[in-house]
Design a protein that fits this description.
homodimer, mainly alpha, Farnesyl Diphosphate Synthase, two-stranded antiparallel sheet, 78% helix, globular
Chain lengths: 329, 329
């Protein structure tokens, strides 16, 4: 029943912007509409398998801190969601994924060809949407996010091959790859609602801290953190270097480090060995350390929020921060 | 010795903008530079295997029709080349190509992952370059080209599966897929040099006619048109529907059409059958028809050019049109 619970919690948080989100559905559908039949079919498919809409939520709530949700804010939300969708479609090629959120991925149904082209098409539609509405600063904020995301992902590919990820590199990757679009969503919402440059920058930072905390939480869930159930160890099976693991590798002596890396490299599907590694990460404080780091980013996010105008929107954003770090899946 | 000849001819045509092209090299290298080591390595590799730079040539010559090559024109040329490079890198994934212009493709060396991400990165760099220079109209012109290219390529994928391409669809595909970036290059150069809206639109049309003529010429070369040597038939081997073939399919009766389509579908590697099909296309006037169509677009391009200010730049553009339709490879 976890899924229901999450949906309920998010719906609750989204209460002050429920009307905005409904209007957004229509705005976004219009933004991706195409005269080309195949494109229309694919984008329609993408719209149907819509996710939790966390990024549009960030746009609308950030906007409502500073003003009304006018047309420019709607454009910002559609642009963010277009870019997010484009990168998801491209990620499917990157990861050779055949499922996403329980649906077949675009590349599974229409091939790598289709996925690359649809992604490019969505990017160009986002661009034109912003240009047609003369939202150049908005476009700049989001273009930087696209650049950061591709840089971050390329950095991860490079480092992941050798498993040689330091904590610094880990944070750079997740800041660029995961956090940058959340950061841009918050900045975009504030900007479109008329916030000043300093407020926009603080909202960008706020979004970045949420994004980093979000990713660390994902790492922790894989280790069965606190009361979130049995460790899954999926990240290790996929040779993904997460913060609890990276920290632990820095704590052990050369011999044990070598043994751990061998488990990840060669025995990553050996359930018993993986379980043993997960236990060691718990014992050596890797999970605790990552949780502390997550709390630091949560704390920084809340502090930034407290410099913003009070009200319903701020309350919802604060609850969203709590939701990100307390979720059970 | 064809390659030398082509290089010489282009160098000659580029004479009035030789200095611009040299300055461009440096500008472009700076535009793709990255702090991320892997990215810098890949983009460096891309820059080294540089092509004929037809698109920057179009930008500079179109600009010089109306004014000086100022910084904004340089930005336009770099943006065009960034988008062109990004789409080439993405096309490598789309086509699963492992070579391009005699080099290994990006996806052969760094995987589909690398290619998709590098393409996205280059797109975002192009965006930021234009935004940092406040060239919003320029960005609009080029975003439309990106949209058209992905739409055109998706249309081709859809139609190619069933080989059911009419002449109308053929022209729509090549206008969107091949001609749109050349059209945008001419429009971008004119725009950046200060041409008015009507001039920009006429230059866009001029570029579109060049692009369409360029693609038909490619089709013709595959059929060993005039004195260009033995037919290669590579397009038929790759089941690519070209204008001479499409026209011919419209001329024959149902039985022969079925037989021709069977050859393309099933016997596309059977050299004798392919040679027979090529002969029939010649006999039935498919090659002649395509040549006429090419000449029409050449003619339209030249007519548009004659409405532009006289001078060195216009002469070069007129010679470029002649080069496109008269080249032997």
């Amino acid at each position: 029943m976890h899924i229901m619970k999450i949906a309920d919690q998010l719906e609750d948080i989204a209460m002050p912007i429920a009307g905005d989100l409904r209007a957004f559905e229509e705005h976004f559908r219009e933004a991706v509409r195409s005269d080309a039949a195949l494109l229309d079919k694919i984008t329609h498919y993408i719209v149907r398998r819509k996710g939790k809409k966390v990024r549009p939520m960030l746009v609308f709530l950030s906007a409502r801190l500073f003003g009304e949700v006018r047309e420019s804010v709607m454009v910002a939300a559609s642009l963010v969601e277009l870019l997010h969708t484009a990168t998801l479609v491209h990620d499917d090629v990157v990861d050779s994924s055949f499922y996403r959120r329980g649906f077949f991925s675009v590349n599974a149904l229409w091939g790598n060809k289709g996925a690359v082209l649809v992604g490019d098409y969505l990017l160009s539609r986002g661009l034109l949407l912003a240009l047609d509405n003369h939202q150049y600063e908005l476009l700049q904020v989001l273009s930087r996010a696209v650049r950061d995301m591709s840089e971050g992902e390329l950095l991860q590919i490079k480092k992941a091959r050798k498993l040689d990820i330091t904590e610094d590199v880990y944070f750079q990757i997740i800041r660029q790859k995961t956090a940058s679009l959340m950061a841009a969503s918050c900045a975009a919402g504030a900007l479109a609602a008329g916030a000043n440059a300093d407020e926009v920058e603080r909202m960008r930072l706020f979004g970045e801290h949420i994004g980093v905390a979000f990713q660390i939480k994902d790492d922790l869930l894989d280790f069965g953190e606190e009361d979130t159930g049995k460790p899954k160890g999926i990240d290790i099976k996929e040779k993904k270097m997460t913060l609890p693991l990276i920290h632990t590798l820095g704590q052990v002596d050369g011999g044990e480090k070598k043994a751990m890396l061998r488990t990840i490299r060669k025995y990553n599907t050996d359930t018993a060995r993986v379980a043993g590694l997960i236990d060691r990460v718990h014992e050596l404080g890797g999970v605790r350390y990552a949780r502390e780091k997550m709390r630091e980013h949560q704390q920084r996010a809340v502090e930034l929020l407290h410099t913003m105008p009070e009200g319903e929107a701020r309350q919802s954003l604060e609850r969203l921060v709590a939701f990100v770090v307390n979720r059970k899946k």
